[in-house]
Design goal:
six-stranded mixed sheet, elongated, Aminopeptidase, Alpha-Beta Plaits
């Protein structure tokens, strides 16, 4: 059934579906359900549940329909209207200059393909839960209505390794900081533009322990090396769950161009082994019309340096608590920050949350939290887990059962449906949330077969 899954994935990839712009993909799924003769319901959160099959035993399958929309800086792709251009290379599918959206589009496609299997529909009833706006804070799951699902079991298809069963995940929260600054008119109208790009990036949960550099942090390091720096603008990062891959800043300084170039080259060389693609470019900037004075510019840079980003606490090989300095922007004479924190331990999450709030307050920033979601606590006695494990081990010997450092919707759904038994599995997806994202084709078929056997064995 690999070809059938790929057929649906190709159709899904033609539909713009960035987070908060899911109306077209939901419309596509509703039309698909109508053609198949399936009932469906859209709840007040915008989530879609499709009811398929004629069996007495009911099981839920779940994927989110939105995707992280990242692209190369020189790409002219318009995520509002353009479909993703798929590139097939050997056993992989990737995109041309953008994120692929296999996270979680392949999960959606697998759910659809399972509904083409008459054995499944004859013996089971499926509740297909398609959630919206997952990537910006699990908002679809947070707004999921109760009473939509009757299943005792649910398989989430939002995992990126086909030899893993996920049975738990971290909770998280977003933190926003903002402060207004006085901008001084620059009569000379001259300055420099510094651009950082070429970093590998990745998912701020599952990739946070891979020593990926943060472009916002590097920008602060560059600018703190300039004694008299005055910031005209600073920006970097895109989304709460993406490690920033690029940043830019317009500055004023008395330093000569060659001195600045030397600073940038030294920092590139410092990180050459960790991030060989890193580049720091400096050009004369004639658009720096206003700037923040030296004292306040250094305040901003010191704050960036002191805010946590990366792994904060580990137990053995597992990350327990982390933070991602996800975004900084200059908007209307304000400097705005976004951080994302995660922890599988509620008390640890609360501590790092209050530590960051205190740091912002220390620098006079207005600060608030949003998108608070719970950890998903593992159930090692799960019937669904045992069946999935038995089926996998009959064919392979590399199974891992894990609690992951990422935000999955399973914890929120279990809060609303506490008696539901949940696991998460999925095909091999490399480098999600980055323009390097790719999915392994052979893994799609492996995952489809595994899910089907679980469904047919569970009852």
């Amino acid at each position: 059934m690999t070809e059938q899954v790929l057929k649906y994935f190709k159709e899904i990839s033609e539909i713009p579906r960035c987070s908060k712009n899911e109306k077209h993909i939901i419309g596509y799924l509703k039309l698909w359900a109508e053609k198949k003769g399936f009932r469906y319901k859209v709840d007040r959160g915008g989530n879609l549940v499709v009811y398929a099959g004629k069996g007495l035993n009911v099981i839920a399958l779940q994927s989110h329909v939105d995707m992280v929309c990242e692209k190369l800086k020189d790409s002219n792709h318009d995520f509002e209207k353009d479909g993703i251009k798929l590139v097939f290379e050997g056993d992989f599918v990737k995109a041309s200059g953008t994120t692929l959206g296999a996270d979680n589009g392949v999960g959606v496609a697998i759910m659809m393909a399972l509904c083409d299997d008459e054995d499944i529909l004859r013996n089971l009833s499926l509740e297909l839960l398609f959630t919206v706006d997952e990537e910006t804070g699990l908002n679809g799951a947070n707004n999921l209505e109760k009473g939509l699902l009757s299943s005792k079991y649910m398989i989430n298809l939002d995992t990126e390794d086909d030899n893993e069963i996920i049975i738990g995940c971290a909770g998280g929260r977003d933190i926003y900081g903002e402060k207004g600054y006085d901008f001084i008119e620059n009569g000379e109208n001259r300055g420099y533009l510094i651009e950082i790009k070429g970093l590998f990036g990745g998912h701020s949960g599952i990739d946070i322990d891979k020593n990926r550099l943060n472009a916002v942090k590097i920008m602060a390091e560059v600018l703190l090396s300039i004694d008299d720096v005055k910031i005209s603008s600073i920006s970097g990062g895109t989304r709460h769950n993406v490690i920033p891959v690029s940043a830019s800043s317009s500055i004023l300084t008395a330093y000569p161009f060659k001195h600045l170039q030397h600073i940038c080259n030294d920092i590139c060389e410092k990180y050459r082994n960790a991030e060989p693609g890193l580049s720091i470019n400096i050009t004369e900037d004639t658009l720096s019309c206003q700037y923040i004075d030296e004292l306040n510019s250094r305040e901003i840079l010191n704050l960036i340096s002191e805010l946590p980003s990366g792994v904060i606490h580990k137990e053995g090989e597992y990350v327990v608590t982390s933070a991602n300095l996800a975004k900084v922007r200059t908007e209307d004479k304000n400097i705005k920050f976004l951080l994302s924190i995660r922890s599988s331990v509620k008390d640890f999450k609360e501590k790092i949350y209050h530590d960051i709030m205190s740091k912002f307050s220390e620098y006079g920033y207005n600060v608030f939290g949003d998108n608070d979601y719970p950890a998903w606590q593992p159930d090692y006695n799960s019937k669904l887990l045992k069946i999935a494990e038995e089926i996998y081990r009959k064919r392979y010997n590399d199974l891992k059962i894990k609690v992951v450092h990422a935000g999955l919707e399973c914890g929120i759904i279990k809060e609303k449906y506490p008696d539901i038994d949940v696991i998460s599995i999925g095909p091999d997806i490399d480098f999600p949330h980055s323009v390097n994202e790719r999915v392994r084709i052979s893994s799609i078929g492996k995952t489809y077969t595994w899910v089907k056997e679980i469904l047919m064995t569970l009852f």
